[in-house]
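U., I forgot to send this yesterday:
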Amino acid sequence: MEILFHFVFAFIFMIIIIPLLSRLAVSTQLVDVPNSRKVHATPTPLVGGLGIGLTLLLAFMLQPTIFTSIPAFYTVLSCANVLLVMGVIDDKKEIRPIYKLIIQIMCAYMVVRAGIKVDSLFGFMGIYDLPAWATDFFTVIIITGVVNAYNLIDGVDGLTGMMGILAFGVLLILTIYLEIYPMTCFLAAGAGSIVGFLKFNLGSRHKIFLGDAGSLFLGFLIVCQSIIILQYSDGKGGVHQSLVLMILVAIMFVPVFDSIRVYIERWTKGKSPFTPEKNHIHHLLQNMELSPV
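Result:
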């Protein structure tokens, strides 16, 4: 019942706050303006991520035990909000990619310093425990890579939102099964807020986009919560951590695979990996006549 309450509460809060944020976005020009590379015809508020961020901040305040039971989660949420603010600034006035990457790496490093890290692959590809120096470096690369993957794949109405619901839903089920209850209600609120976002993103009234703020925020939360669940899954539920690892890899596979594919393609052409091109999975979906973001 508590899980359902947080889901419904987050959904209703999004329904209330999005129209208000949309009016604020229009007055401050926090909108996605159509140009030659975009298909939508009218300026659209970039407030989906901001709404989700505010909703989850409230959900965190309603579920304070997540802080006492998982102290490092405070660092995760703090760094996620740093990326949220950076994303809002980037949506308003573009930040150079290298600067965004540096901030992402710094946030990932802060999370690692708080103790959230991948120190073993549990036999995946024959790899078990990682050396200490490799653990920190590997975790920073994973977090930064996943965050960028979600940011790059955000280009079609509902795509990142649907992937976010899938990820939050799977993580929620894992926390219940593995008895990591402090995170369960927070994840329920996350799923509810994304459903609320999709109501506007996929609708015609008060149309909004997720924006860089939302994709960076969601990507960071998904990967960091996945690592926390992997750490806390040791010996719980009778499930080996290698299975948990495979499940977590599966929910992030599409955006990560797409970003790796695009980076390799650009590199083989002698271009910068940050060069904007229409070769992402959402461009393929657009060719199938799905609406763009």
